[in-house]
Amino acid sequence: MSAEARRDVERHLPTRDRMPRWVPRAIALALAGVVGLATASWLLVRLRSLLVVLLVSLFLSFAMEPAVNWLARKGWRRGLGTAAVFGAFVLLAAGFAAAMASVLADQILKLIDAAPGYLADIERWADEQFGIQLSTDDLSAQFSAGGGAASLLGDVAGNLVSVGSTAVNLAVQLLTVALFTFYLVADGPRLRRLVCSTLSPQRQAVVLRGWELAIDKTGGYIYSRTLLALAAFVVHWAAFSIIGVPFPLPLAMWVGVLSQFVPVVGTYLAGLLPLLIALLDEPVSAIWVVAEVLAYQQLENYVLSPRITARTMNIHPAVAFGSVLVGAALLGGVGALLAVPAAATIQAFVSTYVARHELIESELFETHSQAAADTEAEPPQAG
């Protein structure tokens, strides 16, 4: 049957039996959508590493832009200012890596030398307390000269000494991130002009507002974390020196950096290394290390952090914790590191365009301390 005859038959069909004209178009759009989603999924899988590199570069550019803008206002060219900020970051990272490598290598060598003595102490203690005869001769032989464990740990210690050269190789591998970040910062104004030139004035205002919030919140995150890391470094350096823990300066650097820049588990990882080194050197010192780390955490959580982050990262702790979990689930460690500034930026952007209203009276809005203060403030009723 020809197309004209088919259309003639359709015209004579009852209205309820005719195919709606929008059905073929809907089917075509659905098929196109399926193909588009499949193509996008395939591209995301193939380009995932590149997208992560771009995301990390964008985050680093947001973090660096306040410092570069400050240098630009002082008369520096943006390219030179970006290079100066990059250089400062590389020097700090290299110094931290070299200091930690020397600490770990020295402690591993000390562990090799002291392990036979530790095993003998364990054997004597088991005999005196429980009457158990333990034989640790074979295990001690592994830590003596020529033993398998001694050889293995010696190789590890030797490799840790070369962390400086490993850091250089890692820097070469991260060249792609560095190049993207450099161009995003150095040519930031030009990139923003290019993006906004394709948008209407109203949309330009929204994009620029979001860009500004991202820079402010990410820069504020780095600024607040740096101040807290510096405070942790100074306090722990003094405390470790007083306690007598070996290598107080690099260990204080370790605690300051990890406790502030590694989400969720950073505090525990930061205190673990000084605790282990104190145990190897003088077990009694480990008790003081634990007490000092716990005491400083209370000081930071209730005194330092609220004051430093009040203006820079106004985000609820539960939201920050949840964002870290979401970021880790999506992008692993990279997502966990980027989650908090991303959540703060989204929260600030949403709050800009969400209307706020006056709250009604309710006990659910009050804390127990506020309720107690209000009760004490009420004058006694005349009898």
Keywords summarizing the entry:
elongated; single chain; 15 helices; 0% strand; mainly alpha; 383 residues
Structural topology:
Blueprint lengths: L2 H10 L9 H25 L1 H26 L4 H53 L6 H7 L4 H14 L1 H11 L1 H12 L1 H9 L4 H43 L4 H14 L4 H16 L1 H27 L7 H37 L14 H10 L6
Helix pairs in contact: 3-4, 3-8, 3-10, 4-5, 4-6, 4-7, 4-11, 10-11, 10-13, 10-14, 11-12, 12-13
Give the number of DSSP strands: 0
| Oligomer kind | single chain
Strand content: under 5%
What order do the helices and strands follow? HHHHHHHHHHHHHHH
Number of helices: 15
Profile the largest sheet: none
Ranges where pLDDT stays below 50 over 5 or more residues in a row are: none
Explain what you see:
- Helices cover 82% and strands 0% of the residues.
- The protein is mostly helical.
- The N and C termini lie far apart (102 Å).
Quick take:
By secondary structure, this protein is mainly α. The chain contains 15 helices and no strands.
